[in-house]
Amino acid sequence: MKRANSKNKTIRFFLLSFMLICIFSVSTIWINFVQFKSASEKNSYRVSELITIGIGDRYKSVNEFITSVEPFVTDTMKSILSSMEDKITTMGVIDNDALAKLKKQYNISDIYVIDNQGLVKYSTVQESIGSNTAALYKNRTDIEWSTIFKNVQQNKEIYVDNFTQSPTYPYNFTKLAYKGIGYIDNIGFVVLEIGLSIDDIKDASVSDLVANLEKIDENNENILEVKFENSPPNTNGDTYFKNESYKIGDKYYTKMKAENLDGGTSQISVVTSFHDVDKAVLSSMYNAIITSLFIVLFTIIISILFSYRFSFPTENNYRKEALEKTIDELKKMQ
């Protein structure tokens, strides 16, 4: 009986050992997987932040270049307006075809001919014809614009605005200039407006900067979207925006504050996705599942075979037990 109990204890010991080894092995596999997944996610966050910082540096470089060339561009636009005034005065009559030729000759973006009511009469931008310039001009209040327009028209002054950038497209910089050029027969008193975009500046340094910023999401397969936002009117952008990073699904969202061309605060929002990393994590999870199942099944099979081998009687076991029983009886008779 004692031998049977000892045998049962041995069986339980080995079975318990197999179970502990199984639990330890499976736990180790999943701990390694969780650590790998966590490290991969942290690395993706860091890469997303570095991408955003890189975009911010390029954005800053473009702004710095624009600021440095602003005085030269202002003088150039004044010269263009004076030269263009002479040509238009000589022609005596203005139409859209004449403006198209002047635009090509002076290599500028847009030309607008405005009457004394502030309406666009002729332009190289067809959809702007008939529009009120005050409604199109967003950088000044109506009162400010009325004062500027009056001085330009009546005193034939030149007014050149600073470069402004689109609230949606960070690489879309435009600069506008105005000059009163007197009376034209088919219009009346005329104000000439010209527009210059950053693309009109034929300088390799800024062209490369703008091109890299414009196509940043095309040059990096991990970047899904790049968006630049200006703070709403009458708000402090520095407190309205904040630097943050978060993840939704398989996409990483990184937001960073940046100084815009006007000295205010904008926000760069970058959406990234790292499919190669996601595939590696998914593959690691599948491997963990398969390996865990294999260990569990292996442990179950070994346990069953071990229990079967030592629990079910065989012919040798019968003989061994009969011999042990006989020996015990002889010992009792002595």
Describe this structure as you would to a colleague.
By secondary structure, this protein is an alpha+beta fold. The protein has a domain at 69-205: 2-Layer Sandwich (Beta-Lactamase). It has helices at 2-91, 96-106, 133-136, 142-155, 204-214, 216-219, 237-240, 275-311, 315-333; strands at residues 110-114, 120-123, 158-160, 164-165, 173-184, 188-197, 223-230, 244-248, 251-259, 265-272. The two termini are 20 Å apart. The model has no long low-confidence stretch (mean pLDDT 78).
Task: Put the structure in a nutshell.
Helices cover 58% and strands 20% of the residues. The chain is of the alpha+beta class. The chain has a domain at 69-205: 2-Layer Sandwich (Beta-Lactamase), CATH 3.30.450.20.
- CATH class of the domain at 69-205 equals Alpha Beta
* Uncertain stretches of 5 or more adjacent residues: none
User: What is the residue-averaged pLDDT?
Assistant: 78
Integer-rounded radius of gyration: 40 Å
Strand content: 15-25%
Largest sheet: 6 strands, antiparallel
Structural class: alpha+beta
User: How would you name the CATH homologous superfamily of the domain at 69-205?
Assistant: PAS domain
* General shape: rod-shaped
> What is the correct CATH architecture of the domain at 69-205?
2-Layer Sandwich
Any chance you could write out the topology, listing elements then pairs?
Elements (H helix, E strand, L loop, with lengths): L1 H90 L4 H11 L3 E5 L5 E4 L9 H4 L5 H14 L2 E3 L3 E2 L7 E12 L3 E10 L6 H11 L1 H4 L3 E8 L6 H4 L3 E5 L2 E9 L5 E8 L2 H37 L3 H19 L1
